[in-house]
Each structure stands twice: as structure tokens, then as C-alpha cells.
Amino acid sequence: MTQLINNDLLGTQNQSLESGLKSDYTALGEKLARSDINIEAILQKAKAFSIAVPSWGVGTGGTRFARFPGQGEPRNIYEKLDDCSVIQQLSQATPAVSLHIPWDRPSDPNELRQYADQYGLMFDAMNSNTFQDQANQENSYKYGSLTHTSQAVRDQAIAHNIDVVELGQKLGSKALTIWVGDGSNFPGQQHFKNSFAQYIDSIKQIYATLPNDWNMLLEHKIFEPAFYSTVIQDWGSSYLAAKETGERCLSLVDLGHHAPNVNIEMIVSRLAQFGKLGGFHFNDSKYGDDDLDSGSINPYQLFLVFNELTDIQLENPSYSPFYMLDQSHNVTDPIESLMYSAAEVQRAYVKSLLVDRKALAHYQQTNDPMMAQATLKQAYNLDVEPILQMARFQSNGAIDPIACYRESGYRQQCAQARPVDPNKTGSGII
Amino acid sequence: MTQLINNDLLGTQNQSLESGLKSDYTALGEKLARSDINIEAILQKAKAFSIAVPSWGVGTGGTRFARFPGQGEPRNIYEKLDDCSVIQQLSQATPAVSLHIPWDRPSDPNELRQYADQYGLMFDAMNSNTFQDQANQENSYKYGSLTHTSQAVRDQAIAHNIDVVELGQKLGSKALTIWVGDGSNFPGQQHFKNSFAQYIDSIKQIYATLPNDWNMLLEHKIFEPAFYSTVIQDWGSSYLAAKETGERCLSLVDLGHHAPNVNIEMIVSRLAQFGKLGGFHFNDSKYGDDDLDSGSINPYQLFLVFNELTDIQLENPSYSPFYMLDQSHNVTDPIESLMYSAAEVQRAYVKSLLVDRKALAHYQQTNDPMMAQATLKQAYNLDVEPILQMARFQSNGAIDPIACYRESGYRQQCAQARPVDPNKTGSGII
Amino acid sequence: MTQLINNDLLGTQNQSLESGLKSDYTALGEKLARSDINIEAILQKAKAFSIAVPSWGVGTGGTRFARFPGQGEPRNIYEKLDDCSVIQQLSQATPAVSLHIPWDRPSDPNELRQYADQYGLMFDAMNSNTFQDQANQENSYKYGSLTHTSQAVRDQAIAHNIDVVELGQKLGSKALTIWVGDGSNFPGQQHFKNSFAQYIDSIKQIYATLPNDWNMLLEHKIFEPAFYSTVIQDWGSSYLAAKETGERCLSLVDLGHHAPNVNIEMIVSRLAQFGKLGGFHFNDSKYGDDDLDSGSINPYQLFLVFNELTDIQLENPSYSPFYMLDQSHNVTDPIESLMYSAAEVQRAYVKSLLVDRKALAHYQQTNDPMMAQATLKQAYNLDVEPILQMARFQSNGAIDPIACYRESGYRQQCAQARPVDPNKTGSGII
Amino acid sequence: MTQLINNDLLGTQNQSLESGLKSDYTALGEKLARSDINIEAILQKAKAFSIAVPSWGVGTGGTRFARFPGQGEPRNIYEKLDDCSVIQQLSQATPAVSLHIPWDRPSDPNELRQYADQYGLMFDAMNSNTFQDQANQENSYKYGSLTHTSQAVRDQAIAHNIDVVELGQKLGSKALTIWVGDGSNFPGQQHFKNSFAQYIDSIKQIYATLPNDWNMLLEHKIFEPAFYSTVIQDWGSSYLAAKETGERCLSLVDLGHHAPNVNIEMIVSRLAQFGKLGGFHFNDSKYGDDDLDSGSINPYQLFLVFNELTDIQLENPSYSPFYMLDQSHNVTDPIESLMYSAAEVQRAYVKSLLVDRKALAHYQQTNDPMMAQATLKQAYNLDVEPILQMARFQSNGAIDPIACYRESGYRQQCAQARPVDPNKTGSGII
């Protein structure tokens, strides 16, 4: 296995933190034991947890106003995989990468797969792109793609999605995630019913070509880039489209794609209850689709989402939705953000495992809201950092991934090896 | 027909405004004729428009902080009908009243029906109430009603709804509207899946007893009185419940029950597209479920809702959802607010009839958002007040209902005839 | 000192938890010591922390739809003080009570003060009430109080506030909190400028009578009970009013009184920077002014508020704003909610003390957002429950206040001793 | 005067609409006369109304996801002025252009001024840009500009603003508008107090160099491009900064820069009451800073803003804030959007002139909310299109600007004369 961070450095770093970690882990283990929780069992689950990183996430993000590039940004899918391998090596929670086509289209899929293999990286859900026009593209998506009023545009968008699936098959992916920017900026611009009917018709055509072991994930969003209406604006529309399309067509929940104040954990429950919860794009937000780092704004909400997921998995242990980080790293080193965020999601997951579900069910059944909420808080208030650190340590990752990464000088090496791409300027779009 | 406003007064008032109205009406007619619109056809539709008033709407509303009673408030369902008859006499747009049980439960339904008959009033959808505890009620709804964890509580709530339907049949109603306050105030308090499953199970039991010519309307709401989660929080949950329950179980849209920024007109379209749009509770809001007067905050949104409805009715002329005003009149004379609001809804409806739909469809099809929105605005910017006034005038209502009402002294007569009910104090609930 | 919870019971309960607590506390102490933090110093600050409880908070709250009374609710200010003494006895964090006048007006202030003294309770900020009409009140507040267009109404509201201050002086209070429901439900209803000018004029008159050692706290709120506009809608208006009025007139921040998505911790910073941050009403919310239990929805936000406060106090150690819990306990035992919430606020405070501020300042100065946020999270992710428990234990409170309270049977005794007040029914105001 | 739209075409178009216009205008005049309003006086005010267009508004806008260029987009400030001249020629409401530096920096300011002069165009407020990095810029604005922790970065941003003022003086501008993207994406990233203190310090330095007849306008924004906090996030911060800085430093209100649900017309009133309302950026929005066309989503809100402005101007007739359209035209021809939007703003202004202010004041004073709101609606519901059309017609503009523009073929000519700039691709920033 190729590893870009020197293992001696990693070992030295871990060594300096090991004794403190063991002390903390032991103390936590004793505390949990008093509640009849076996810390080792939790640790095994923590080690088994994984979440995909998006290939585009290792580049610096931006806004319509500006993009401020970082140093040594990856210039192609191979350099992106290099960065992803560093994230996985240190965090040991991100073994798969999600590609965006055409951004990441390789000239030779086999070569790409082998390149990933050397790092032990797999390919998660494939993402199509019909929200931008590409050079030499026949029809423009300015007024929609899968929902466009013109059959020719819809056909082009459908063909692109089918093409992405074909590529994904060669790479070992098992899912297609579809997000469209289709919508309108003015009352009257679109006929709501027709647009949605065309959406459903289009995804049915894509679904018809889907391999039997693949899922199709529909991503909804309340606004942006369309600002008056979006064709698949909420989980209700997502559910209806998935339901109309077929069994393996499922809804994907992006935490930042909802109206203000909406109870997202309830949406998680509803979609699961009706068999349509397929996956997540994790991030955090304060205002809109801010694409901030997962758990950075409201970590309790992230815990509540996992509280639902753990509840669902109690009933159906084999249930395993797609998890991906979907964040825009505008002011941080993307590698650092992705390592930290993966651990934040893992933290929420681990805490959800510590909820005393028997007690919770009792308090729910007997209408004791005080103790029901206290039961959740009892788990949430625990400091599970020792479990996360031990999981990484035992998996040959870093106890403190960011410190180790900074010490490694990886970014500085990239800055030298990857001169700035002059086509990726900092000018925004207003 | 009994009429509580003196017809001579009404005639005198109208006479003083008639010449101005005719001048305005003629000018508008000529203007519309230039766009090939026949004002008389529009007038006939305006005259045929009707919207129900809620019996509880004729009392002064309040907030959890306080209620400031008005003068001469109705003390029982008979006095409420008196007030409703005044609204209908002057506005000629509100021939039906929607009852709330047990608030309006009559000792003798036949007597009540005859009382309404004398005014030419009918009974619209019946409303059940399981969000409050009633005196001598066996089980409390503190922790839920149709979704309660206890079978006994659910049974009680189901029985109440069935009882309301039976009463409604005697009164000539044709629909049951179900709104529950069920939800939770704390993360963990309720099991989302179980609560929703119990909701669906309960409404199925009610539905099973529904007369064949009745509809059941499910009302969703994002928050209040529950502040962390509500069992039927949005149109997605409402759709699922209605779909599971049966063909005549439909969703009802209250304009104030959505998350901030949500595109309500699109929800209207979605529910109609999937055959589940059953009715509306009209009001307006700036923040939450403010229950402000319809069209008082965002009249263009009201127009856009009717733009959808008119579009739906073009395709299916017999489509006729239930319309009701659902407002809390905290600072106005409720009779005035209801007359004014009925006209505001009617205004939005009439303007939606003036949209050049052939042009709109063309601009939508050819992706001309500027002209598509301009087509809507062209209709919206018209002053259709002459049509509304003429519709009332020709139907023996008042050209200026509020001026006529004030001149009549009706409220002052009520103030004398209806001494304040000492049980209805102004103290709030905090 | 009178204590309503049996001290033997308390002792027995604590004894059963003491060994686990000591083990957790020692482990945490060792962990903190590795970061050069002395747990004992933190413990002393935790023990010194206090937050007032509102007298009205010990009664069950409700909404405009309904109130579902709990058992044994206090029927007067004396019984409310009994309940507050239990909260303080067990939580040891709530030594002061905030009164609401006229709800809590005693016939003999001295007697009330002595009654509180026996429990060791003090009186925090006094709250006036001009958002409700009282029996035998000359002028109605239906259309405003301190901002009413009528001088007579304004004078009545001013006189009430002055009266409340006089009463507060007799009780040992040092502050007056003013919240008005004044505002409008319709565009056009109020003249914005005139209303605000009248507000400022009115509070100046109250301020002129304020004792020299008193503060006046202005509470703003974006909506409810007024739904189109409120006279003092946000911190900008609050600041302007406080600035115009005088040095001891300050702004009070209620966590639930802001527009969606607003960054409240930044408002805390702004008001402090300009010398106008006077106090807090703590609660939590998901939608509007939900008045949910503090920290129950977004505990990280509560931590961020205290992160600002601790930062301010570093610069100005004597700075001490007024803290009060302001919650509506609709579904829980209010005593339980207030004990739990006091601890949640205390938890946020204690965590804020653990932030490595030197490191934070460095990361802020060098624009290292990743490590800046990680520095906050490092403190936030710690489990400080042992410190909170030890603080209570050493102060003769309960290690587990709710378990001890339930064991005591206090609520059952109240249920017997306090038969239901027939005037406090469950009927709501819609 | 150079005119790019053929005047014969304009005349022919107008001729075809003239008779209908005169008929409508006469009918409206008669109707208004019945309310003692002289339509000619209103017409004169409508003709005197003007609003600036932003130079960047004539290019197609985009989002972080994509930009879909239109045909014949202007490639430099001269071509932008060509387009602005067309807008002014046809709409006769946009005689001034607002520049953005460095985007629009001319090599020779005098030449630019003369170029504008030929079209009768003036230069409105100048806009500086410190939210993007420019080629060859010494310091990056990635972590702030006027508020950066580094003195060097702040000095660079200050110098840029001073430079913009110098350029503006040569062009005849009289104001500098400052908007910064400064803020943070993570809790802890910025020290709120220090950032704001640095902001105030920086703008004071700019203000110190401001010509005596210039104003400085501070633009606040709740979020984007910073997603956790922005340094000047709301009108409260804007007021404080303007107040600290000096008399000619004023606040600018952009309609899309507020938290959800916020009452913007009240902010207008507050800032005016305290002497700090300097200007507006007009646009509309449904979700965030959508930058949609003015009045396209909530035209009643736009009317309510002008209702405040007209009220202020009654008291102070010489009061004249800066008005500018600030919109992102992503799916329309920008020239069409700007012409249509200018008319929508003008429409709101004209309707605000028709409010019976004597009646309104009476209803406000006597607390008659029904008639107060009806007084606003009476004006709002009028169809003032004939006044807008007549204003354009009498000023030699187009009765129907969009029809005339389309007929002229101007865009097609541009498409030929302005081949696509290959540097302005459609790729977005995610």
C-alpha cells in the first residue's frame, strides 16, 4: 500500500500521545462500564465506520464573489486521489472517494482504478453534472437539464447520466447521485407540473439503464442556483420522484438543502419509514447551503440525525445508506477540513451508539419528555474523543491527524510539485 | 331570508357609490376588451366565487400573552351565525360557515340547521378538536391525541372525530378537517416513526366511517403548539398520510403553516399533480402561523396560489377544493376583517383569471422568463376593484362593505345585546 | 434555613453516587492537568455561578391553543417561592427569583421578603407587565402601552413601571426589565417613527425615577404577540433606546427573540463592545420564541454565547450581566425543567472557561480558522458533568437533582396541598 | 445626444400604443380626481424619479455553480455604458450609472466621462472591491480586507477605497459605497470585537479623505460570502459604524441582505429617524441574497418601503437617498431586466404618492388598523401603469420598453459586434 505520509513520523507523533490516550480511554471505559456499556464493542463500531470524501472537496471552494485558492491544489483526479489517500491514511474513516463527471473523467478508467487501488481507495457514488455547460456541448443547461422544456436538452442530460453510470461500473461504484440545478428565478418562468413530470420521465429513463446492483440517489434542494423555485425542492418531491421511478431509486438528504428551521432528523425518519432513505451529504450551515464543515455549527443536530440512523439500524442491522462529506472549503486546507469533519461525523455516530435505547423507549412510551431528552443528552455530553483516537490509533491512523499532517509538510510539498493552474483564478461570478 | 343589515341603508350606500363604480367598471371593461377579455365573463366568475368563514373567526382572537376582547362578541353558535350572516349579506362571497366541535356543538342540530337556513347559510367542512382538553374528558391530550402512545387516548380522539362527522351529516356538511397539535418539545420525546404510524392508523379508522360523499382533509403545520417536532409537519407527511388512507382523504394547505421562505404555490401544484389537494385555509403571515388577514402581508403570493388553482381548473373545470378563511382577528372587528379578507382572496382569484395563459404557456415553453413573469404581472397590476364591487352590487351586497357595516351600527347593537361573558377574560397563557 | 427536601434523603442519594463522581472527577482533573488547567479553580467558578429563575416559570406554560396544567401547581407567589426553594436546594445554582407584577404583587412586601429569606432566596430583576389588561384597569393595552398613541395610556403604563420599581426596592431587587408587546398586525397600523419616539420618551420617564443603584433592562423581540411589526424589534432598536435613555439603561438579550439564522453570539459581542449588554433571558428554540428549555435544541450555540461572555469577563472581571431562565414548561414538571436548564447553562459556562484563550487568540491573529474552531471544540467536547456534579455536591445540593426530586415526592405532596385553581383552565386562545 | 435605439422605431412603437394609453390615463385621472388627486402632479413626480443602474448589472450574472453567458455581453466599461444608455433611452428612469472598481477602471477618466456625456449619463455612487483578489495584488483578502488582523492588508484596502474616491471625483460621482465580504466561516475564526473595531478604524481613515460634498455609504449583509458571521451583519452594526465615523457616513439598505422574515420597511424608518439612511440597493429575494429583479417576488414589500420614504420626504422634502438597482440577471437579458425593474421601483414610488396620508395618520392615531391598512391597499391596488407609460412617453422613452427593445434588434447587433470573451467562461466555483 502506498502511503504519502511517512509512517515513522506518524509513529513518533502517536507515541507522544499514546499514554494520555490510554489513560483517557481507560477512564472512559470505566465510566461506561458503570452503565453496562462495553467500550470495546463501541470501539469496534467506531473503527468500522466510514464516510466517502468528494473528489472536488480537496480543492479550495469559493462563492459567486470570489475563490481564494490555497497552495498546492490538486490539478487533476490523480492528484485529488493523492490528497484523498492522505485523508484516509491519517483519519482511517474515509476509504472511498466520490467522483464528479466530467470534472474527474479519466482517459483510462482502468488506470484510474489501479491508481486508487495502490492507496486502498474505493469509488463511492458517482455524481453527474448537468448544472454547468461544458465546452463543445451541443445544448445549454441555462434553462434546465433533465426538466428542460426541450426534448433535445433532456435527452442530452439523460445520456450524460447514463454515461456516468457506465464509467462508474468500470470503477467499481455502485450508485449514481443526481442533483440538478433546474428551477426558476421568476414566478411564471416554469410550469411547475410540467417541469416535475419531465423530471420524473427523465430519471425513469436513466433508471431503466441502471445495473441491478446499483442505486440511484435523488438529491433535493430548496434553493440555489435557482432562486424562486427548484424542481425537486424538498423531501416530499424527492420521495414522489423516487417512488414513481423504482425500488432502487432513493432519496438523498443533504443537511444544508432545507428551509430555515426545518427538522431534518424527522425527514430522515420519514424517508426511512417509507423505504426511501438512500444516503447523505454531510455538511453544516447557519443560513442556507453554506457547505460548512460537518458539525461546525450545530453538532447536536448531527447527533440527532445519527440518533435516528442508529434507531433504524437497530431494527434493520443491514441497513447501510451512502454517507459522503459535501463541503466547500473556502478558508481552510481541504485535507484538514475533511479529516476533522470525518471525525465529527464519526463522533456523532459513536455518541448515538451510547444512547440507552431501552430507557429512551420507556420514557417515550410513558410520556416523560424530561427523562427522554436527558437520556439523549447523557450520551451526547460524554466525551468520546478517546474512542475516536483509539480507533484511529489501532487502525494505524493518527491520534491527532491535523498535527501529524502539519508536521509532515505534505502541503508544502504539494505547493512545490503543483504550480498554480492559471485557469483557476480567483475571480468570482456576480 | 332574514337580513340583519337594513336593506334601505344598504341601498342608500350603494346608490352613493354607483355612478363612480359604473364609470370605473366601464373603463376597465374597455381596457380588457383591448386584450380580448370580456369583463362580463369575469364578473360572472367573480360572482360565483365563494369562501367559507370559520365560526370561531367572528370572535376576537388572541395570543398566549393576552386576548383583548372586542365589543359585542358572539357568545354561542347562534350569535356567531348572526355575525356570519352579516358578512355574507354585505360581501356576498361567504355563503358557508365552518364549525369547530365541541365549541359549536348544538343541543339540537336540526334547530341549528334551520337557524342557518333563514340566513341562506350552509355548513362547510367540520373541524374536530383534539388539541385541547374538555371538561369531564376522560383522557388528556397533553401528550398527543390521534398519535398518543396510549391506545385509550387514541381511541378517544378517534371517537370524537367520528362523532363530529355524524353531527356534520345532520348539518349538511361534506367534509371533516383534521388538525392535531400532536408533536414534541424536546429531542427524544417522541419516536418519530411510531407517532406517524399511529397517526395513519388513527385516521384510517376515522376514514372507515366516513360517508361516501365526504372528504377528509388533513392539515399539516411545521410548528406550534409543539415546538421541536410536529407529527404531520409538512406537505410530504400530509401526502403520505392521505395516500395511505384512501381516495377521499386529501391534504389541506394552510398558508401560514410552512417553514420560512417555502414556495407555497409549488406545494399547491405538487399536491394537485398527485391528486391530493383538498382545500385551503387562507390567511397571511410574516413570521410563523401569524394568522393575519389574507393578503395583508404578501398579496402577490396569494395571487400566485390562485394562478396555480386557475391553471389546474383549466385542465379540470370541475375541480373545486375547499376554501376557508382561517385568521385570528386580534386587533380588528372580526366581521370587518372577514369581509375584507374574503374580498382579498376574491381579488387574487379574479386577477388569476386575467392571466393570458396562452401567452404564458408560450413563454414558458420557449424559456422567456422575462415575458413569462411580465405576463403574470400584467394581470396582477390591473385594478380589479370595479369587478369585485360590481359582483357585490349585482348580488345585493355592498359596494363598500365596511363603510356600510359601520354605518349600520350592528356592532353597537351587539355590544348592548351581548354583555361580556365573564369567562372569556383577557388573561393569556405564558 | 428552611429546606423542603429532606436532607437525609438528599444525603442518601448523594452517597450512592459519590464514588462514581469522585472517580470521574479525578480522571477529568488528570486530563485537564495535562493541559495545565487546574480543575479546582474551575470548580470554584462553577460553584459561584448563579442564574435567576422566573416566578412564573414554576407554573405550567401553554400556547394560544391550550394549556395542560400539571399537578400541584403553585397558586400564589408564596407557593411559587416554595418551588423555587426546591430548585435552589437541589441545583445550588438559582439563589434568586425574578418577579412579574402584577401577577406576583404581595399584599405585604416585607412579609414576602421574609418568606424568601427563610429559603435564602433573593429577588432578581423585577418585570413589569403592560402586555395584558388587568381587571379594573382604566385604559386598555390592546393597541399599545408605553408606545400608545394616547398620552393617557402611556402615562398609565409608565406609572405601572414606576410602581414596580418601588415594590422592587422593598424586596431588594436592583433592576427593572421592560418588555412590551407593542407593535402592529397590519402594514400601516402604526407610524414606525412615532411609536419608537413614544417608546423612548416613556422609558426616559421611568428611568428618571430609577434608584441610583438600579439598572433598567430593555428586552427586544422580533415578533409575537404583534405579527407585522414590533416597536423594539431587534438589538439595533434596543441599543438606540438604551443609548438615548441613560448609562444604566441597558439591553437584554432573550435567546428566542431573533429572526431565523441570526448570529446571537455576535449580538452579545456588539452590545458589550458598546457598553449596553445588561442581561439575558435564557431558553432555546427551533422556530420562533418557542421558550424551550435552555440548551435543549442547540447546546453549542449556548456555549458560543458564554464563549463571548467569558471573553468579555477576561477583559473586565467585574462585568456581571443579569442571567435569568425564561422558559415555558408546557410538557414537563417545571421544577425539573428549571433544575436541568440551570445546569445546562452552567455547563456552557464551565466549558467556556476551559477554552485555551491564548491559543485561540493566536489562531485568530494568524488566520488559522481550522485550529481556532478546533480550540473551541476541544473545550466543548469535554465532559464537564463531573464538575457540575461536584459543585452541587460540595454546596449541599444534589448530585442528580431530578432523581432526588422525584424520590422526594415533593410534587405529589403539592398535588394534595394545592387543589386545582378553577380559574386556571386549559382552554386556549385562538 | 447619441441614441442607440432608432428614434423612428421608438416613435412608431409609441404611436401604436398611444391611443390606448391616453384612454387609460384619462380614466385613471378621472378616478383619482374623485379622490381629489391631481394625476398631473403625480405624473410630474413620476417623470422626476430616477434610479441608478450598476455597470456590472448589464452583464449576465451567475452563481457559484455556473454562469450561463448571454449573447453580446459588454466586454468593457464603454460597452457597458452603451447598454446603460439603451436602458435610459427607453425607460427614462435611469440617468446614472454606478461603477465598480477595479472592474470598470478606465485608462483615462476624462475620456470615460465624455463617453458617458454623449449619452447624457452621469456617474452615481462608486463601488470599491476588496472582496476579490486582483492580479498582482500584494496582499490577499482571503481572510478579510478592511477588518483583517494584519495592518498591511487593512492599509491596502484603505488605499484602494481612497483611490476609488479620487477616480470618482474625476467622474463627477458624489458617493462611495463600501461593501466588504469580511467575516468568518467557523465559530472562533474571528474575534468579533476586534474585527468590528478594525472595520470602524479603517472606514474612519477613508472618511478622513472624503471630499466635503461626498457621502460614504456602508452596506451590511447577514451572510455570503462569509457563512458563520459577517463583520457588518445588520443595520445595528451599520448604524454604529456610521455613527462613529461621521455625519456624511450613512447606512445603505440592500433589500436582499437581511435575515428571513425581517421587517425591512421598519429598518428604513429607524435609520431615517436617526439620520443615517443614505441609500438603497434594490432587488428582490425569496431565500437569501437572491438578487432577483426588484418587485418580482414581493411587490407589496417594495411599496411599503416607498411608503416609508414618501412619509420621510413629506417631512423633509429635500431628502434624497441614493437609489440603485443591484440585481444578478442570470436568466434574462440584463437590459430587459433593468428596464423592467426600474419601472417596478417607479411603480412602487408612484403608488406610495397616492396614499391618503391624512386619512392614514387619522387611522393610526385612533387605532383603526382595518382602515389604516385599507388606506395603504387603496393606493396599492390602483393600476398606475398609465402614469408610468405616460411618464416615459412624455420624456421620449418607450411606452413599452421591452417590446421596443426587442423590435430594435440591439441585442442581435451586440452579438455580432461583441464576440464572446473566452476568459468569461461558464464554469462555476463550488
TrEMBL record, chains A, B, C, D:
Arranged from A to Z, the UniProt key words for this protein are: Isomerase, Manganese, Metal-binding
InterPro entries per the UniProt record, alphabetical: L-rhamnose_isomerase, L_rhamnose_iso, Xyl_isomerase-like_sf
Single annotated GO MF: isomerase activity
Q: Does the keyword Zinc-finger apply?
A: no
Give TM regions: none
Domain of life (superkingdom): Bacteria
NCBIfam families given in the database record:
L_rham_iso_rhiz
Protein name, please? L-rhamnose catabolism isomerase
Q: Which organism is it from?
A: Rhodanobacter aciditrophus
Q: Gene encoding this chain?
A: rhaI
